[in-house]
Amino acid sequence: MYKKGVRKMTTPIDMLTQMFGDIIAFLPSLIAAIIVILIGYGVGSVVGAAVNKLIEKMGIERSFDQSGTGRAFKSGGLDLSSFIGSITKAFIVVLSIILAIQILNIGGTLGNYLIAVADYLPRLLGGILIIVMGTVLVDFLASLVGNTLKPIFPEAKAEIADMLKNLLLIGLVAVVLFIALDLMLLSGNLVYPLILGFVMIGAGVSLTDGLIKSITDDHKEFTAVAGYAKFVLYSIFLIIGAGAIFATFQGVTNVVANISWAFAIALAIMLVPVVYNMAKKMSEEVS
C-alpha cells in the first residue's frame, strides 16, 4: 500500500500503454479522415472532368480562345475548360479536407491554424475563379459594346469606339478585381489605391491615344506636336496615378505634389519653343 499523500510514479510501461491507447483511440478518426479525403478526391476528379467536357461541348472555349484573355491563356499553355475543371476539382477536395480536419478534431495552436487555412482555401479558389471568369465576361462585354458603337461613328473616327471600349474594359476589370479581392480578404487601404492608380494610368493612356489620333486626323497641322502632346498627357496621368497609389503613405502626397509642380514648370518652359514654331509656321501658311 502507498502512504496517504504519496502519488504513484508513472513507469515507462505505463507511458507506453497510454501512448498506444491514445493512438488506438485516434485511429478511427484518422481512418475516417483519410477516407473522406479519398472520396473527395475521387468525386472532385469525376465532377471536374464532367465540367471540363461540358464547357468543351457548349462551345464556350472556342469563343474564349478568340478573346484577348483566351490568347493570353493559350500562350501560357492553359485552356479554359481544363482550368475551370481543375478549379472545380480543387474546390471539392478542399471541402473534403475541411471535413477531414473537423473529424480529426485536432486541438491547440496547430488545430486552429489548420482550420483557418482550410476555411480560407475556398475564398482563395473563389477569388481566382471570379478573376478568370470575370475577365472573360468583361472582355466579351467590352468587345460587344465596341462593335455596337463602331457603326455610330464615321469610319475615320473608329478610334473613338476603340477608346470607349478600352475605357469600359479597364473599368470593368477594376470592378472584377475589387470583388475578387474582397472575397479573398485582400482588400484594404493599400490594395484599393493601387488598383485605382493603375486604372487612372490605363484610362489616361487609352484616352490620350484616342484623342490625339482623332485630332491629328482632322488637323494635320498638329501632327508635328502630337508626340509632344502624348508625352505631356502620359506624364500627367502617370503623376495622377502615382498620387492615387501612394495616397495612403504619409508624406508621399506632398512629394508627388512637389514633383507635379516641378514637372509643370519644366513643361511650360519646353512648350515655349513649340508654340513659337507652330505660330511661325501658321503665319507663313496664311501669308
What fraction of residues sit in β-strands?
under 5%
Please state the average pLDDT score: 76
Structural class: mainly alpha
**Largest sheet, if any?**
none
| Helical content (DSSP H or I, runs of 4+) | over 70%
Cα gyration radius (Å): 31 Å
Distance between the termini: 128 Å
Basic shape: elongated
The secondary-structure element order is HHHHHHHHH
Number of strands: 0
Regions with little confidence, pLDDT below 50 for 5+ residues: none
Please count the helical segments: 9
In brief:
Helix content is 83%, strand content 0%.
SSE topology sketch:
Blueprint: H1 12-58, H2 60-65, H3 68-75, H4 80-104, H5 108-149, H6 158-183, H7 191-218, H8 226-245, H9 252-286
Helix pairs in contact: 1-4, 4-5, 5-6, 6-7, 7-8, 8-9
Notable traits:
single chain, 83% helix, 287 residues, mainly alpha, elongated
Structural write-up:
- The protein is mainly α and 287 residues long.
- It has a domain of 83 residues.
- Helices cover 83% and strands 0% of the residues.
- The protein has nine helices and no strands.
- The radius of gyration is 31 Å and the shape is elongated.
- The mean pLDDT is 76.
